Amino acid sequence: MSVKSFLILLGFVLVMVSCKTSSKIITSKSEAQKSGIYKNDSFTKNNSKQLSEGLIRKGLTFLGTPYRAGGTTKTGMDCSGLIQVTFNEFDIALPRTSTAMASSGKPIKKSEAQKGDLIFFKTNGKNSINHVGLIVEIVENEIKFLHSSTSKGVMISSTKEPYFSQSFAQINRILN
Fold it and tell me: Which long-range CB contacts under 8 A does 70-77 form with residues at least 24 apart?
């Protein structure tokens, strides 16, 4: 997946997302049921890769949404709101805050990270987790993740950026 931004008018940015994949685009529970990866109120273990792709595609529909503390809609959302809303589309319940989300799933090593995992940070010199993102791509030692930035809203960032490299806390696997 690659994300490119082009300036179209002063103050406006057009974000284009390109995904190269042969699998069907799945952005909701109903589409997952139709495709067969969602059965009996759970996703089959063998299809967690498809589920990860579905979560990423759903999350990407929020690109450009402005930041709003406590927000959970396209009019504005914060980092944990973005993650909670995205996972809720697939009936996966997560706590509302990034701090509480950090206790969900299974913590894994950074080297084991996969698309669809949650990545957590301790930003602004905080001693506790206060930021979360959804891993959308891994290229060598770089992890790209979808999150809601207070300054730019929903966007994709990288662990190669000094701010996130220095504030990295942990990665949790929510999907089996």
Answer: 76/153, 77/148, 77/154
Domain residue ranges in the chain: 53-173
- Which 8-state DSSP code applies to residue 132? E
Catalytic residues: 79, 131, 147
65 φ, ψ (degrees, to nearest 5): -60, 135
Give dist(CA 112, CA 171) in Å, integer.
Answer: 9
Residue 40 has pLDDT above 90, yes or no: no
Cβ pair 128, 93 in contact under 8 A: no
Pick the CATH number of 53-173 from 3.40.50.300, 1.10.630.10, 3.40.190.10, 3.90.1720.10: 3.90.1720.10
Per-residue pLDDT band at 176 (split at 50, 70, 90): confident
Whole-prediction pTM: 0.77
Burial profile 105-132: b = 16 or more Cβ within 10 angstroms, e = fewer: beeeeeeebebbbbbbbbbeeeeebbbb
